[in-house]
Amino acid sequence: MTRIACVLMVAVAGLSAASACHSPYKRVGGGCFYFSGNIKRNWFGARDYCKSLEQGGSLAIVDDCSLMRPLWNHILFTYGKSSHWLGASDMHHEGSWTWVDGSPVAMGMPFWSFNEPNNDGQEHCLEFWSAGNGYFNDGQCSRVESFICQAPRSKNSWSR
Ligand SMILES: [Ca+2]
Ligand SMILES: [Ca+2]
């Protein structure tokens, strides 16, 4: 194989990988996500559910603001306005928010709803908040609601 053909094949493989997500994930906003819909859990149950998915996922890490609107719009159009758990908490150190991969959660705009997080009544788990039109809120981890999982980033895409 000539060197140029090899480069072309890599490029084509990259293109097809960018358009497909392995089941049960679907491509939204450039990532591979699973929306639980009518399956509702508290935050811990949601975290475990994501881990148990076929490809071994995690609760969604929404650390890129360009993901906020596509994910929330998908919820609005598919399930209606409803809060969804995401993969971050401050349960280990109050006020110190980290994603499930250990990276820090950006505070303020454009991610969080006005005056959130407020730890109102011991809130340690991150959600897309219906009352905040899809901006972040810290909610009580014991609340049972829908959730979003994401494929492991190294396995986000599958070429077919
Ligand atoms: Ca808290
Ligand atoms: Ca709150």
TrEMBL record:
PANTHER family: C-TYPE LECTIN DOMAIN-CONTAINING PROTEIN (PTHR22801:SF63), LITHOSTATHINE (PTHR22801). Residues 28-150 form the C-type lectin domain. SMART domains: CLECT (SM00034). Gene3D superfamilies: Mannose-Binding Protein A, subunit A (3.10.100.10). InterPro entries: C-type_lectin-like (IPR001304), C-type_lectin-like/link_sf (IPR016186), Ca-Dep_Lectins_ImmuneDev (IPR050801), CTDL_fold (IPR016187). The keyword Disulfide bond does not apply. The keyword Signal applies. Keywords: Signal. It holds the Pfam family Lectin_C. This is Lectin. Residues 1-20 form the signal peptide.
